[in-house]
Every structure is written in C-alpha cells, then in structure tokens.
Design goal:
By secondary structure, this protein is of the alpha+beta class. Helices cover about 30% and strands about 25% of the residues. The chain has a seven-stranded antiparallel sheet. It starts with 8 loop residues before the first helix and ends with a helix.
Length: about 260
C-alpha cells in the first residue's frame, strides 16, 4: 500500500499561505531610491494668460514705433531692467523696412532675476510678438516672409533661475474709429478731416506665461494678473512723453475696450 508524502510541520511553517502568495504577486514592487528621486518634483504648471487693453488718442503707426523700440524698454516698462536688439529681420515686402528679429532682455521681479533671449516677430504697424522658451508665434508664417525661420521657436535662455519655460508677449494695434454716439440719436457721420485730426488706436496686450514649476506659479497668482495692466499704463505714459498730449478718450469707449480684453 503506497504511502502519501506530507510536508513536515516545520516546512509548512516556512511556506506562506496560498492567498498571501497571490496577493504578493500582484503588489507592485517599489524602489526606495526611486521614490526619493521623485520626491519634490512638481507637475507642469499650466499657462497663465494675462490681458489688458486701452484706447489711446494717437495714430497706430506712431504707437507701434514706440513698442518696436525694444532698446528703450527699461526706461518705461516695469520689471524690464535691460534690453538689447541682437539681430534684425530682412526687409518686409510692404514697407521694405527691417525689424527686430531677436532680443536679449533682463527681467527683475521681486527676488527673481533672469536674462533670456526672445524671438521677435513684427507684422508692421499691427502686431509685435516676442517668444521665449517653448513659445511659438501666433502670426501665420505666410504673413512673415521677412522672418524665414518664424515656424521655429527660439529655445535659448541665458538665465540661471529658469523662472519660466514659455513666455509669449503680444502687442496689437488697431485703428479705432472716432464716431461718438449722442445720448438721444444715432452716431454722427464724421468728416474725413475730423477723423484725421482725432486718431484713436486700441492697444491690446496679451501675455501667456508658463512658469518653470508650481512654486513659481503659485507665488505669481496674486501679482501676475496686474502685470498686463501695469505694462499698458506704462506704455500710455511713454506715449504721452514722446508724442505729447492727445485728445480726450471718453470713458464709454475705455469700458468697451476693457470688456474686449477679458473675453
């Protein structure tokens, strides 16, 4: 009669129960060193979009000449401590004029100080965009034949603080028709002479910034929304200094411009 072999009680004690072995088989293994490397890493910070606009009593081409003067930024734009045009574009097909192509800017904001390179794109007398880090221009490449490399972002930063990973600054200038509406009637038809003597331009600023980490993004939440408005106000003061005092812009048009800037 054959005998059955059973494990001795001592061997059974060394072997875990079947249900425990199955549970351990499905449990992921962790590496303590790998866990330490991941500690302190932050998720990618989402882009923040800041906007502001204002109607200024000057021709658009004169205002555009002010914003394209990048070397003058430290004298009127907040947080910009130095700026230099480092290369220029080819002649544009409409005005046969060259424009800034790249620039080096230094930004100081509280404890942060960073110098970085920006690719600059000028749609003459209409839009100026500056792209740093991973930012790419929103102006179609077909409108920028004087920038043959407009589809390639400039991924160069000279700063050691790495404050942001992406920064796009877009200034837009649009002629604003001067047709005031009387309180008890339709808009008045303006003569060509009156329209020419009272030029108006809607100046809009959009800033899209992605900070390098969540800490910088959180610290900026309180102050960042005010930056665009401060820059537009500084630009308005610059226009008054260089171009003189313009005609008066009424509050209703200012309110409509502000409403468009937050849409």
């Amino acid at each position: 009669m054959p005998c059955s072999l059973r494990p001795s009680p001592s061997l059974q004690l060394l072997k875990p129960p079947l249900h425990a072995r199955q549970r351990n088989a499905t449990r992921p293994r962790t590496n303590p060193l790998q866990k330490n490397r991941q500690f302190g890493s932050s998720p990618l910070s989402p882009l923040q979009t800041l906007t502001a606009s204002r109607i200024l009593p000057y021709p658009s081409h004169k205002l555009y000449n002010l914003i394209v003067d990048i070397a003058a930024y430290p004298s009127f734009l907040p947080y910009c401590t130095s700026s230099t045009i480092t290369s220029i574009s080819g002649p544009d097909p409409t005005y046969s004029q060259t424009w800034p192509r790249t620039a080096s800017l230094r930004i100081g904001w509280g404890p942060y100080d960073e110098t970085f390179s920006s690719a600059v794109y000028c749609l003459p007398y209409t839009v100026l965009e500056a792209c740093a880090g991973d930012a790419v221009p929103s102006i179609p490449a077909s409108d920028l034949p004087h920038y043959p490399d407009s589809s390639r972002p400039l991924r160069q930063s000279d700063g050691s603080h790495a404050l942001f990973t992406s920064l796009l600054t877009r200034w837009t200038f649009r002629e604003f028709p001067f047709k005031p509406r009387p309180p008890d009637g339709p808009p008045q038809e303006e003569t060509a002479e009156k329209v020419a003597s009272q030029p108006r331009t809607e100046v809009s600023l959009v800033i899209e910034v992605g900070f390098a980490n969540a800490v910088y993004s959180a610290l900026s939440q309180a102050a960042a929304p005010k930056v665009a408005g401060q820059m537009v106000e500084a630009f308005e003061r610059r226009a008054g200094q260089v171009l003189g005092e313009g005609h008066v812009v009424d509050d209703a048009e200012e309110d409509r411009s502000a409403a468009r800037s937050v849409r």
